[in-house]
Fold:
Amino acid sequence: MGYETSLKLFIDGVWKSGEGRDCHDVINPADAQPIAALPYATKADLDEALAATDRAWPEWRALDVEKRGAILHKAAALLRERADLIARTMTQEQGKPLNEAKLEVLASAQLFDWYAEDAKRDYGRTLVRPAGQLSRVIRQPVGPTATFTPWNFPLYLLAKKVSAALAAGCTIISRPPHETPGVGTEMFRALADAGIPAGVAQLVHGDSALVSETLIASRVIRKISFTGSTNVGKHLMRLCADSMTRLTLELGGHAPVLIFDDCDLEKTLDTVVPQKFRNAGQVCVSPTRFYVQSGIYDAFIKGFAQRTAKVKVGNGLEDGVKMGPLANKRRPDAIDALVQDAKAKGARVMAGGERGEGGFFFQPTLLADVPNEANIMNDEPFGPVAVSRPFDTFEEAIEQANRLPYGLAAFAFTENGRRANLIGDLVESGMVGINTFAISGADTPFGGVKDSGFGSEGGKEGLESYQVVKAVHQA
Structure:
């Protein structure tokens, strides 16, 4: 089945196609062939989007929360109704297996439902004061917001921002990645069909520098929410400095996984291997640096390699495929360079280690005995490569987990309760999963520390990130 999504801009309630605009080819990573033409927003388009979002904000923020919630619930229902189409679009644009894509659509719908209700529970508080005086603390929408999202979870990460911002009473301008524009288009089509008022939600595709610099330079935009690399996040911080524009940044990670000798080894292996190669390792919280206690290191490596060799790789639309291609042509080159560097510095290739055939494929890969000097131990691979090395003591494991400037997610597998408590306290990370990788949900704050960014999305913290706090005192 061919590509079915019609790619357009959505500005002030109107769909705009490619007439008079530059276009960019959207590439299917499974065969490296173009599948659609994406219209890029002009400076005039961006100015129109800014004017619309500014004009619509007072009306949207004043709209009763029940009515805002009803629109979000309707959008969620439409996403579910159209899940098969959106999932196929995602697989064709991004490469992940179709079942993973559909699960992402359903999780995105859940976010809209969650925030439709969570906004109704935003109560504020009243402070204790003498009789006749009143002091209260309220939260109000921060204002027009711009969102920037990556291609690895092109619907879910966009939904996290859009659903919370709209629920809080903010208007939005969203710029999704050019690799995966169709799923963002389908989300905004659902919002439009759900009855979102003109000007409340705009979708613009285009050159990242033009879009970000135009939107951030405008005094209309009060808040930026960005998910992507640490380098780009730091660049956006600099752009926001002059206007003191608020930021939420979910940036790069390099998740450590501490495997202790008291874990259920077979169960642990059955858990970690599928997670490592989910979405071809293109996951900001993907388990990557495996530190394994010496007594079980050899058995762990053997079991991991055996399971890795059985991962079926191919076009994500085909039955039985567990891992698709990487998302763009840059990724195989980047992964190969990291693997070759690790090999040159003493790492052993236990599985994979080479490019696949056609498209943007790279084999599921396990490297053992990887020294800390290897680039891949310090730079996030963002691909289907697991790196491993042994440790002896608990203190050594914690030291290695905290060694890098990143702190997005960390994981550990142990059956020792006291050790689990200590890991939760001592590992420097915004999220810690112990005997689980289930760290992201609609009701869960998601965010990092150190160079992995600041602020959280998901849960009540996600709603609060689109609000300002006001104290009102009355005598």
